[in-house]
Predict the 3D structure of the following.
Amino acid sequence: MRKILAAATIFLFSFTMLPASTLTEIPFETMDGKTSKLADYAGKVVLVVNVASKCGLTPQYAALEALQQKYGPQGFIVLGFPCNDFAGQEPGTNEEIAAFCSTRYNVTFPVLAKVHVLGPEKAPLFAALTGPDAKFPGEIAWNFGKFLIGRNGEVIARFEPKTKPDDAALVSAVESALK
């Protein structure tokens, strides 16, 4: 068991040290159990967001969907990663989360399988986004932390949870990235 934990720790640590150019190759799980990666969205501007359905910030789903609808045709996509790391505000199963997003907020952007964004079980993608060698290092503070990734797979900007998706700075960053 210790060997497994040590190997897992080395595995996760290695992702925190990845250069940004390999960020696009880090695998993550979709709601239906398949493997995906940012490379699957090559050429798109991607907004990676850790989401939760029982948070005071949950209404941001509506603004995220509005961004998706407005900028999606130009090559933009939101990727939502449900996370239960903050006060247990995403307790549902993947199926319950998908149903909530669909029925409550009519979400059309991909909502991926539930992940951890903190601690020893931190998903490799979030380890790379927040690790010491990341462009914007530091732990995610709460639900709805946002990372904007350019068409070339490089992280462009990071927005804190309380920054709403329709905030002028976030919208400006998306529009600039789409040019």
The CA atoms of residues 57 and 162 lie 7 Å apart. The chain has one domain: 2-178.
